[in-house]
Amino acid sequence: MVTMGFPRDLIKCIQIKLANSKLVVSDKEIETFQGTPQGSVLSPTLYSLFVNDLLSDLEASKAIALAFADDLIVIAQNRREAEKATETVLNWTLRNNLKINFEKCGFMQIRKTKHKEKGAAEPLWGIKEVRSYKYLGTCIDNTFSFKEEILSKR
Questions:
Q1: Is pLDDT of 121 > 70?
Q2: In terms of DSSP bridges, do strands 22-25 and 28-31 run parallel, antiparallel, or are they unpaired?
Q3: Single pTM value for the model
């Protein structure tokens, strides 16, 4: 935040707020030493500031990145761009000592129409291919038909 030009007094206030964070689990208070409190109004803003350089790196790799709260979706035109964008994300997480939960990750090839496939595509950096994905509460499928989303609302 300092390098982004934020006032030092504001940074200090945020540090004090986060330093006194506690979780309540089964009526027991537990101090937290990393991250931001779940549900805090500060969390989405701090996340956006934290990943700002990642979003810039992805933009340079020709990928489109959508980030909200702690979710990130990367859109690429082809597999080569997707591989480059994925490598960008993986390198950024390593530089920032973060771990990716690959169980929550997936990649999807969006097509205009359904066609028979010979099998799943080769994993992208170990990330499995999915036919649909729920992002911010909306189910997106690989034909952009939103069929699963519509059926789930009936």
A1: no
A2: antiparallel
A3: 0.71
